[in-house]
Amino acid sequence: MKDSTSAMATAELLMEQALDALRRYNEAKGHASPEEVERLGLRAVSLMAEAQEYQLRLFGGPIHPHG
To answer: What percent of the chain has pLDDT over 90?
Structure first.
């Protein structure tokens, strides 16, 4: 894996992206089309999973394959 400073910066960036996507999803509720809200929700879930998996790899946790 990358050096620890770079790896932590990547983890932080992934989490910021996931939280931003979650914010956009929550803001869209009641204002955007149902399709757009669903798209934003799926994007938020995907980015949260990516951030979590990266952190698990970074800190040596178990990785469980999807479905």
So the answer is: 73
Q: How far is CA 55 from CA 12, 23, 26, 37, in A?
A: 9, 21, 24, 27
- Give the helix ranges, DSSP H, for 1-67: 4-28, 34-58
Which residues are CB-neighbours of 21 under 8 A, at least 6 positions away?
40, 43, 44, 47, 48
Q: Read off the pLDDT of residues 24-36 as tens digits, 9 standing for 90 and up.
A: 999 999 899 999 9
Residue type, 25: Y
d(CA 20, CA 23): 5
| pTM (2 d.p.) | 0.80
Res 16: pLDDT: 97
